[in-house]
User: Fold these one by one.
Assistant:
Number 1:
Amino acid sequence: MSKQESSAYPPIERGASLLLAWRLDGRRVLLIGGGAVAASRLGFLLQSGAHVTIVSPGPLEASIAYRVATEPDHITWHDRAYGSSEGGDVSADDELPVGDYDMVLTAVDDVALSRAVCLAARAARTPVNVADVPPECDFYFGAQVRRGPLQAMVSTSGAGPKIAVIVRDLVADAIPENVEDAIEGVGALRAELRERAPGVGGELSKRRMRWMIGTCDAWTLGEMGAMKAPEVRRRLLDDGWEKHKVLGPEAVGVGASVSARVAKALDGAGAVWAAGAGGLFTGAAVATLATLYFVRR
Amino acid sequence: MSKQESSAYPPIERGASLLLAWRLDGRRVLLIGGGAVAASRLGFLLQSGAHVTIVSPGPLEASIAYRVATEPDHITWHDRAYGSSEGGDVSADDELPVGDYDMVLTAVDDVALSRAVCLAARAARTPVNVADVPPECDFYFGAQVRRGPLQAMVSTSGAGPKIAVIVRDLVADAIPENVEDAIEGVGALRAELRERAPGVGGELSKRRMRWMIGTCDAWTLGEMGAMKAPEVRRRLLDDGWEKHKVLGPEAVGVGASVSARVAKALDGAGAVWAAGAGGLFTGAAVATLATLYFVRR
């Protein structure tokens, strides 16, 4: 192996998790527990469209109780403890076996029950998370932020959960306000492109992907929201796709492009410069008037 | 339900994925395919410590070939196509059945084979991802960034993959350079705290968590790296934990704390304010001198 070849492929840095966006729409999830941690899990599960079976003796944490009352199509609540215990032995033997579910989450203070559920889930090949017990987790939750169709997660695989939260807040600040408009606009463009040039795989599929990437590269995030307008999409497809061209915003009459570019340039360091310049002029003006006033007296 | 109660719990915004950090250390993954997409998957799998079985006729994409040659303990390569086909029917019938694996990924241009693998994986309850065919995916990959133990992912659940990449780059810029030091320092502190006050669950566990969160709140990310020093941790534990106190960096002699706090305060909006103020004074000074000069002539 030559030096150049090996340096092209850096050594593998192990210790990571595989970060995933798990699809739960229409799937069945078993949630064992009814406290604050279970409440947090429930929120994420409902957002993902899962049907959640909660097993926990009441009273439930307030937000869980609210969701049970208002989301009857998405939640079934069993007001009892999970599993059985005989002669002091806790087991996951229950009329709602973990193997009937697509995912199992436990958030209870019962170490023996958690362990029994984990073992049963592994035997049934059901993905499982036991809150606060890493060895009994097939997956961890991270610190998250959602902006409509865009989601971001920060994870330290348990090494620093509080730091994950701090970084998540920085990440949330870094996500542009108009990202939802951009996703909506680009999504509508891609959908119409697929109507014009349908099919999966092959040369056309590759050309479609290249054109979409090229077009996205020619627009800023702030400009992409303009693609929500049908006329803009029509011009991109008629004058761009059909003619094997990639068009920027100016080419399809998106007038806000200049101001959007300026806004983008001013973002971050640019804003510091602008504020400095603004301050410079304000300071100069005030000082000039003041100096004239005092000198002329 | 009173107005106040319902406004405390916002309506569920569906359509999200459940973002997860999947643990694959020591797990077995079947990767069908040997091209560019498979290469990207392989990188993430190796970082997560999985053992990967690759099934694909050679030649392999260059980086896959390199990993096969240099990671013999983590990769087994079968130089052949996956599955069988008889009378034009493709099936996932193979001597390496998907049910023997903890996860199956396919990245091939063969639609019939992908579908067969997906069906077999679902029957065997093995999580599956078929590249570019969302309905055949239990999970999606997002745009990712890794900084040692910290990982972040941006996903649009397929609505705007290119936008996810753009936002990922913004997110990468927003993650502080020294975050690895912070995680290492806080991780070492937490490990030593667990040695002093061991046990899972109960009051002690809660006090431990409260103290860790309180301590993290009293330190900036930039300061936390100082916890890598054993003397700093010893003082935090002896003078803080043992005495039921939360200590900031000054209390344990971390000198950089003031400048770090100033740097933190100046970050973002603070920098704009400071630049504006700086400009104000500079502008005032220059204008005053200039005005005096011209008026006095």
Number 2:
Amino acid sequence: MTDLKRSWVDSANSADTPFPLNNLPYGVFSTGGEPRCGTAIGDQILDLAAMEADGEIDAGGTLQTGSWNAFMAQGNKAWAAFRDTLTERLAEDGDESLSKYLVPQTDATLHMPFTVSEYTDFYAGKHHAFNVGTMFRGPENALPPNWLHIPIGYNGRASSVVLSGTDVIRPNGQLKGPDDEMPRFGPSQRFDIELEMGAIVGTASNGPISVAEAFENIFGYVLLNDWSARDIQAWEYQPLGPFQAKATATTISPWIVTAAALEPFRTSTPEREKPLLDYLKEPGPMLYDIDLEVTMAPDGGAETTITRTNYNVMYYSAAQQLAHHTTSGCPMRVGDLLGSGTISGETKESRGSLLELSWGGKEPVELANGETRTFIQDGDTLTLKGAAHGDGYQIGFGDCVGRLKPAREV
Amino acid sequence: MTDLKRSWVDSANSADTPFPLNNLPYGVFSTGGEPRCGTAIGDQILDLAAMEADGEIDAGGTLQTGSWNAFMAQGNKAWAAFRDTLTERLAEDGDESLSKYLVPQTDATLHMPFTVSEYTDFYAGKHHAFNVGTMFRGPENALPPNWLHIPIGYNGRASSVVLSGTDVIRPNGQLKGPDDEMPRFGPSQRFDIELEMGAIVGTASNGPISVAEAFENIFGYVLLNDWSARDIQAWEYQPLGPFQAKATATTISPWIVTAAALEPFRTSTPEREKPLLDYLKEPGPMLYDIDLEVTMAPDGGAETTITRTNYNVMYYSAAQQLAHHTTSGCPMRVGDLLGSGTISGETKESRGSLLELSWGGKEPVELANGETRTFIQDGDTLTLKGAAHGDGYQIGFGDCVGRLKPAREV
């Protein structure tokens, strides 16, 4: 575990800042004009687009695009060189003349940091799969037979990925209770969160790649909330999987935390009950130790932490998922986003969805103001938070926030 | 049913040409240089990009992009006006001076006519769903309970959509027979076609839209072959649907046949066994009468027609599918591609996949050269063909062709 790297930006030297020099996450911000590429440092944003325009730094012109896709497409040698330069110039003995490129985060509006090419969501949390499977099929048949062999995933909808802070509208959809003769169309009554990490593909591939190659192709990570309508899903998902239940919105945190920044926090996936096929074996630790939590705040009320868990509980890493994704020859593109699957720990307090926390609605979750919840109510704000904790510093992600608005009139 | 519209381009006046003046499908072609937007007329392509560059026609500059997305984004009033102008100028008493913009189709290479934003595949053929369900669950439980109520669909992989003529490589993947204790990794042994139509979204939407609005938002149609690895699918698809089984390739025909050209061929979806929910009811006929067939040719051998069917057998129209797609609030974008689902008729000879034609591999299909097939062999070429037949003319799609190459070494 490395120590805090000190910067001439004072606010970056606190143990509490999510954005010390060790982090340098990439985002897109504006202060009235066009969205610009920048990096967070302490409580400031360094305006990288302006620096590149002034010839202060060179990223091949990619920082002028208002998105990190073109930068990513330069490949991981360019990523490393750029990060080295930034680290050097922002270090305590670096180049304080760059202070003219600092913008206080409180003055900036954040935008989507990259264009999502396609979005794939996985189901790689074993406790989550076991919990959900137990509710639907009993503990003996909880895990599907393929689950220990395949990082199960489905294609999601890229057009529905939104930035933290975007309101989410409760979806309408087809609903049918087990005793109803016919479905009806109306607002989802079991609208839920899924606490996930999102991995961003930074290097394209056109054919099968190994887990080691996949690891190199991942540019960075965001927090990801895959909003899910459990009742719509229950009626629609057989036989071809979730569709409209998962298409309302998927919220991501605003800063891309690079794989480079997370390097000190690599950890291994757990021991296997069944041997993995060779193509899925990891040559080294490719998961990360990242503390995660979710808070819920009712309309106008204080927030309550409803779960605390860690990314390190996942059964498959993003590298394994990406390698599996290419087995069929499926081309992957810069900007592809891979959701980890819901991250639930072993205990009740570490479950990553309300479906699990309230055990299918049977055990309501208590909030600080005395209210209870099974699923999300209109006006509730859900916030995902995450940070990898080093020695005297942390690598934070910035919050991943969404507030639920009432459904549209049917 | 309208009659043949006669053109000063002689080859467009034959009853046999797929591209009479009534059609005017949009494609992208090249003759050595950059890909250019054009329309097929008889055995020629009219170079619309060159015409626009010369000021001969105005499409807001969109024809200079080597793709039809920007043109589509102008909206359906612009589509209609542009088609009217083209029809007038190519008519028998039109503007023969445009002949300098004609390029023989035999001299041109065709390219993807549009950029696929996202790809969704449906399962809206009742005979197909019934056949497949019967094989897996018996005739009593063949149709899933939701099938008569929901146009069942899943998100596919846009990056895997390829143009007709692109070779397809047999995928590797996880395979597990019912009696195997463990899965193994290797080439799919049950690689198949799916005969489908693809509908192209030409107008974006950001929230739920009606079936009538959805119909107006569809720009045109292509033939679509959703190559499918049945054995990979069987092992992976529970509980989240097909993933790598459908990610190798989806081939589309090269010309976008507009909804306007298909207008005379509108037909109704069938009577309903169960009443549809209001949001899925069609205000008029929104399906089309399009004759379809598939041929198979072994390596170096002649082609055999292995099925003949019609798009008019589908249970849900593309407009119904698109409307359903938006119920959750899912944003749709210009260039979204919706696969109809496999188009199988009632009879054995009209089934749209080898899975059905060979009844799960038990009843091999006979080819003209005496060989038989259950699934596709390396070197086989599969071709989808389609045309709507009017009085003395047809609206053809151009062939949708793919040849299967051997799997990569594992």
